[in-house]
Amino acid sequence: MMNSTNAARFRVVPSVGQPIDRPTDLKKLEDILEIRRTSPEAFIASLPFSIHDATAGTENELQTVVIGSVEKVDLPLIIRASNYYRNSIEKAATGDSPKRIFTDLERHLSDNESGIWENSWVRFDQEVLDPYTRGILENDLRADKRQLAGAIRQDADRFFLVQGGRTRIRIPVSYLLKLSLAETVAAADTPPVIRETAERLMRHFSNDNTSPETYSFQPMPLTPEKKMGKGVAAEMLKRFLLTQLLVQYANRRFRLRENGQKALVYFAPHTLLRQKKLNNLISDAYYRELFMSPCLSGWDRGEDKYRYMHLCHRVLSLSQLNAVAKLREADIITRNLVVLPNTSNTCLANNGTHISLGSAKISRLLQHSASGFGERDEKHMGDLVIKIVEHFLPLFVGTYSAAPHRFDFWDFHPERMLGFLPHELHFTHLRMIWRRWKKKAFIRCLGRSVTPFGPEKLDRLVSRALGLQGDFVPDVRLIDYLVALLSTGASPALNGMPDSDGKLKKDLADMGVFDQAMPLYLLYRLRRFSQMGFSGYEGRYYSIFENVMDDMGDAVNLQVLITALAYQYILEKKISHDSIPDSPFIESERRQIFFGAAIGIPTFYIRKDTKNRLMASILMRVKDTRHSNRYGGYIRVHNLQYRRALIEMIREDGKALIELLGLQETLTNLEQRLVSPCHSAARRLTQGILDQAGASDPMRVSGEEFNAAAEIYYRDTLQKKNMNAALSLFQDDIRKLDSWQSWREGYYNQALLHTLNGKNAADYLKALQTDLLDESAGAEDLKKLIHLMLLSLHMDLQQTQNPSGGV
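Structure (tokenized):
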């Protein structure tokens, strides 16, 4: 419902220029998209991403550590054996560099009481591998995997070493998962259905970035019959459970634990503290050598991908440095004393979940060139959908996923705190955010915000003397990563024109901000049919879920609802490209709300004569707005009230979609998360971390204490919670697999008999559940459970391809 007071405050100024989408073009697209106008119900059902059209899949970036002593784990061993380490010793001895540089590095390696080594590789004897698994490794070491007799990678030697006269393999944990899966099906008597399923799933364990990555074994249909988003969440949990079984099996089968190494894989949203500290002690080139994964799995030409990942790290590190200059230009840095960011950035070690939606209808049309719907149409409509959806993205921040983080006072340098925001926001909104952030934070003395001076020892002294504590934010990952590049005035990324994103990348490359070889970073990214084999959108704003089934399930529901609603607005001719002008200021105006929510800033400002018609229509519904006393011509808006207005708008405009998709409960749940913050993912994650730290409030502990407790919480408490949820799903699956109906059909009988020798599968899993949670299960039991899981996943794959349930 419109707010009459706001209607008087906001004035929509017509944008200048010819609308990109003319009514004749839209009518033609409507016919091609088979939009039915016979009734309101038929219209809603025929929209892209509406009922029976949308599918979803996820990509998960996971954290890995190896636990062991400094004498056993690969990371400290490889550092101490490196030329970099030896050169540091020599330079310190000759006085060519301060001794502190070497002693700090040596202290970092020696003083690790926890024995936890972030993103370390593992090493084990080559002889433990079955010939079948060794063959997979040999093929993955080829420069081009499509050439089975082709040349070996030039860096192949780095994956082998000789110790005590024995050849040992050293690989990242992300690749260990694939070899572990191969080893479980290496025996010659492995039932064909189990081995074939394993071979099919191996490619879903990719060796990318710094962290292990897995992606959906199959796209899930988003239908009420398949439980909408909960079906997607269940698939992710099962994949997570398989990952846990594989890493536990590798610890046993490859004798890692016998040799003082224990690998762990779990969900954690941002770079671990010790990895950040190590990054400050070594060069950027050596950091890449240690932590950029070699891309052994997932690409035909792994070395090319490996070089690309090096490029990404160099570009992002340079971008962070360039951001300092922008802060000075924006008058945020007003003095010559600054704390320069490290020349090596750790943001590629941040981990999140990407949720991609696909439209069966649009994908089918793009597959057939004679359909009349081509790449230009996909880009034209896709860019407008993205612009619309971006207005709704603040609904997701903190409600469904989060990354709680505590900053100390001495962290509060703008060049540190604002991260990549200078490349993501117009300087006007950047200044507004920084002012509001300082006002929100606990850094005020005598009514004025005090920021650090520079020398950390002095800043710590000031912090204690004046009681300046710093701040707490609900989702630091969204601030610590380059998630959405701002367009330039000459090259808007989302104007619907072919290669508009390519032109922006060239502009940004000329400015030293980005590289043309990299995909354009956006919060909501078009997945083009020509590149992906399907047409859809990727949501890249999810950090970590406290409850995967509830949080992620509802998040997927809301994502598909808003995407379908965007198409409804377009095809009802309510919103066009002309409604949301393509200027950096307008782009930044809507994105500032998202970033403010991630920081926890309660208010933002919008020009009362905004040219963004969609923004104006949303703000007409927002309560408790007022003219800004500080910024002439601006209206002050509360973030919470803005998000409540978005829910009201979705309920009114998307009523038919909500009913068709059965998402009434999703909207009720979302409102509860906003109105009662204790139900939000951010609050629940924060409480779990506080329980770990033994504190009642984030500001009652230091930043290092809170963030260290967060790492333990993710690695232990949340890990076990996710395992329990996944085991519950697996228990249900194997009951179906081992049921009388399944035995009568006969398809899995031989494989089940081979795996369990007639034992009841559900009882077998129940008996091992405690051992799985405390990681004490033996290799043979783990292998059997992996085989059971492969049968269960095969059943899932068959049912997705054949909804009637037949094989």
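Residues 302-329 form the longest helix (28 residues). The longest strand covers residues 54-61.
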